[in-house]
């Protein structure tokens, strides 16, 4: 009897999952850079479009290379279905819009990535959807906010940029009591360190641009869920609105998945060690890292994650100090990206969270002295030397 790929270890899933060789039996996955497909006959086209015969009809709907990426990521995540999108934000947008209509209600943690917050605060209300933000670390706040007409709950854990931790199990139970679906943005944790579907979530979204590519090359996103949810809420909207992933980007992301486990575990180890070092520096008012003992969400993080992730949040006290630190870095790049092989640091109030009203930022933890540090694959010794030297000048 052939082995079930679901029984493979993570490392094997990332190499062998979804593999579909052509008649040429290539070793590397094939890149099907095509817009459409042909049929043996008019009757064959009829059967393909009706779904009677399996196969591809148009790359906006699906594509062999894209399907390899989807199948591999679904196997890793433990999902029945993966739907790849052009970007992470396309995935968040589609995940939300597929679930709601005028008169519905959405609840989200208040400490969200800037564009995600804009979707909830500005975009959904234009279509008659009510929205509420809550302190994502407080289960009682979720309980108070969820209503009978709540259809979607959006969790970002760890959150961007201050690494707040939300109890996925607790919030999922509250949401399911009223029939709401739970969406988890799992970018910071990665599928290596956290699998939200096993914790009660209904839908997981990724910016594959981050760790899944992890090498600064392409954009991509993904929605992972069950067959039933895909059929009811996503199949037709995704087919007709066209936020599709390009085959070339899918091919790059397939190759990125091959090394995901190796990369993020190394980055995780370096980030954890770096958090211990910078916490002792006099220029640092606070360091936030989920597996650091003094993180407010440490216990919940340890209960649902197997690693603290690749990102640190630092508070240096003022914008002036944050800018001095950033400008003094020699190895670490100043960049608004994260999850890359190259270490990157940014000042969220002036970059990723610039769209958040200034008066609201402190309540979200987005402080003027804040720096988000995404740890890459450089050596711990070199990164430590670079970061400490920059902190000395902050």
From TrEMBL:
Its EC number is 2.5.1.-. The modification N6-(pyridoxal phosphate)lysine is found at residue 210. It catalyses: O-succinyl-L-homoserine + hydrogen sulfide = L-homocysteine + succinate. SUPFAM superfamilies: PLP-dependent transferases (SSF53383). It comes from the Bacteria. Its cofactor is pyridoxal 5'-phosphate. Gene3D superfamilies: Aspartate Aminotransferase, domain 1, Type I PLP-dependent aspartate aminotransferase-like (Major domain). The keyword Secreted does not apply. It is an enzyme of class 2 (transferase). One of its GO terms (molecular function) is transferase activity. The keyword DNA-binding does not apply. Pathway: Amino-acid biosynthesis; L-methionine biosynthesis via de novo pathway; L-homocysteine from O-succinyl-L-homoserine: step 1/1. Keywords: Amino-acid biosynthesis, Methionine biosynthesis, Pyridoxal phosphate, Transferase. Homotetramer. Catalyzes the formation of L-homocysteine from O-succinyl-L-homoserine (OSHS) and hydrogen sulfide. Belongs to the trans-sulfuration enzymes family. MetZ subfamily. PANTHER family: CYSTATHIONINE GAMMA-LYASE, TRANS-SULFURATION ENZYME FAMILY MEMBER. NCBIfam families: O_suc_HS_sulf. This is O-succinylhomoserine sulfhydrylase. It comes from Caulobacter rhizosphaerae.
């Amino acid at each position: 009897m052939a082995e079930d790929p679901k029984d493979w270890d993570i490392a094997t899933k990332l190499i062998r999952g979804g593999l579909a060789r052509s008649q040429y039996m290539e070793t590397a996955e094939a890149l099907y850079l095509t817009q459409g497909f042909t049929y043996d006959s008019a009757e064959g086209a009829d059967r393909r479009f009706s779904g009677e015969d399996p196969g591809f009809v148009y790359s906006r709907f699906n594509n062999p290379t894209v399907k390899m990426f989807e199948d591999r990521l679904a196997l890793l995540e433990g999902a029945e279905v993966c739907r790849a999108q052009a970007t992470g934000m396309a995935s968040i947008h589609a995940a939300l819009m597929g679930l709601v209509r005028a008169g519905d209600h959405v609840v989200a943690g208040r400490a969200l990535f800037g564009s995600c917050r804009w979707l909830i605060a500005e975009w959904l209300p234009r279509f008659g959807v009510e929205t509420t933000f809550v302190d994502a670390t407080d289960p009682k706040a979720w309980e108070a906010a969820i209503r009978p007409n709540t259809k979607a709950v959006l969790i970002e854990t760890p959150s961007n940029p201050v690494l707040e931790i939300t109890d996925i199990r607790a919030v999922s139970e509250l949401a399911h009591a009223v029939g709401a679906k739970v969406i988890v943005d799992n970018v910071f944790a990665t599928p290596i360190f956290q699998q939200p579907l096993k914790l009660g979530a209904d839908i997981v979204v990724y910016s594959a641009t981050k760790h899944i590519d992890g090498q600064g090359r392409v954009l991509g996103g993904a929605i992972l869920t069950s067959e039933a949810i895909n059929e009811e809420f996503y199949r037709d909207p995704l087919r007709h609105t066209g936020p599709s992933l390009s085959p070339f980007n899918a091919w790059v992301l397939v190759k990125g998945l091959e090394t995901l486990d190796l990369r993020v575990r190394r980055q995780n180890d370096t980030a954890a060690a770096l958090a211990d070092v910078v916490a002792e520096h006099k220029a640092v008012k606070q360091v936030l890292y989920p597996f650091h003992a003094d993180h407010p969400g440490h216990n919940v993080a340890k209960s649902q994650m197997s690693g603290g992730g690749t990102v640190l949040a630092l508070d240096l006290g003022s914008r002036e100090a944050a800018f001095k630190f950033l400008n003094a870095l020699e190895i670490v790049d100043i960049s608004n990206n994260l999850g890359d092989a190259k270490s990157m640091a940014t000042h969220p109030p002036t970059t990723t969270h610039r769209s958040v009203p200034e008066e609201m930022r402190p309540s979200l933890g987005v402080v003027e002295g804040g720096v988000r540090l995404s740890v890459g694959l450089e050596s711990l010794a070199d990164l430590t030397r670079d970061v400490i030297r920059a902190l000395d000048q902050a």
